[in-house]
Amino acid sequence: MNVEKKLELLRQMYTIRAFEEQAEQLYALGKIHGTMHLSIGMEGSAVGAIAALRPDDLILSTHRGHGHCIAKGADLNRMAAEFMGKATGYCRGRGGSMHIADPASGNLGANGVVGGGIPIAVGVGLGIK
Predict the structure, then answer these.
(1) What distances in angstroms separate CA 46 from CA 5, 16, 53, 63, one per listed residue?
(2) Whose C-alpha in 1, 30, 34, 58 is 20 to 30 A from the C-alpha of 119?
(3) How do the domains of the chain map onto residue ranges?
(4) Rounded CA gap, 80 and 57, in Å?
């Protein structure tokens, strides 16, 4: 891996950390409703996992999926809008923090149920097959 790629991955990790720290502050101020599970400290696993994929690979994520979304190319403004229940969010403000989906970037969504994405991924795989 060349230096440019390493710097890009590091930039993604910093972006995820900064985004989640800001989300945490907004949540504490009551601007984000519902439940939010942050992945602060786990940025490297999201960035590393997504970096190993091809651009056309699909992902399903977990209740701590903000980093995966960002590493897969999600727009930070649309993510923030989704968190705050705005119509300009990825799911028109209805999915919130744990259910962000961006099929255009290959992100088929996150699931608030621990392990809940596994049967969904199997179904997607069978459907594609």
Answers:
(1) 15, 9, 11, 13
(2) 34
(3) 3-128
(4) 24
CA distance 49 to 97: 20
Instruction: Give pLDDT tens digits for 61-114.
Output: 988 999 999 999 999 999 999 999 999 999 999 989 888 899 999 999 988 888
Say yes or no: domain 3-128 is CATH 3.90.650.10.
Answer: no
> For the residues of the chain, what is the DSSP string, one character each?
--HHHHHHHHHHHHHHHHHHHHHHHHHHTT-S-S-----TT-HHHHHHHHHTS-TT--EEE-TT-HHHHHHTT--HHHHHHHHTT-TTSTTTTSS-GGG--BGGGTEEEE-SSTTTHHHHHHHHHHHH-
Tell whether pTM > 0.90. yes
**Cβ neighbours, 10 Å, residue 128:** 7
